[in-house]
Amino acid sequence: MTVTLTVPDAAATRALGQRLAGLLRAGDLVLLTGDLGAGKTTLTQGIGAGLGVRGQVASPTFIIARVHPALGAGPDLVHVDAYRLASLEEVDALDLDTSLAESVTVVEWGEGKVEPLAVDRLEVEIYRPRGGTAASPDELAAPAPREVRLRGVGERWAGVDLAALAGQPA
């Protein structure tokens, strides 16, 4: 089942990530899809805050993957940017499967690249409408609503009420 939520701006996107963190547990794979500036890293910042991990969650574009250790008893956050990865072999070289069972792994730009890592995963598509075909710096900085589609895949997500994420306080 797919749930679609509308978030008005980046702050609400972070708050959604914090609420989503309450549903996540070690072993979860979250696959984020969306255009440049849609809010993938912003959502991941909220997930990191909700999980209570160390370090500022920032886009790992140039380092590909970053581990944010848990400050408490919860799982670590592994944040991956697969934009520069061209194949499943390059994803395999990251050894994500070695930490998958004890971490929450969030992969930006991973569609078509990381699905073999886990039968169960949460697919999150973020759509931010904008004028024209390319986002200008002004458009990326301006508050804009986002449409977030969440789809649980596999037994892990079968009984999870993703619609409950709408409108709850962070």
Description:
This protein is an alpha/beta fold and 170 residues long. The protein has one domain (2-131, 142-157): P-loop containing nucleotide triphosphate hydrolases (Rossmann fold, 3-Layer(aba) Sandwich). The protein is 23% helix and 25% strand. It has helices at residues 10-21, 40-51, 88-93, 96-99, 137-141; strands at residues 2-7, 29-33, 65-68, 76-81, 103-108, 121-127, 146-153. The protein has a 7-stranded mixed beta sheet. The radius of gyration is 15 Å and the shape is globular.
CA(first)-CA(last) distance: 23 Å
Q: What's the shape?
A: globular
| Beta-strand content estimate | 15-25%
- Total strands: the figure is 7
**N-to-C series of helices and strands:** EHEHEEHHEEHE
Tell me the count of domains. 1
Ranges where pLDDT stays below 50 over 5 or more residues in a row are: none
CATH class: Alpha Beta
**Residues in helix, %:** 10-25%
**CATH superfamily descriptor:** P-loop containing nucleotide triphosphate hydrolases
The average pLDDT is 84
Which oligomerization state do the chains in this entry correspond to? single chain
Overall structural class, as computed from helix and strand content, comes to: alpha/beta
Whole-angstrom Rg: 15 Å
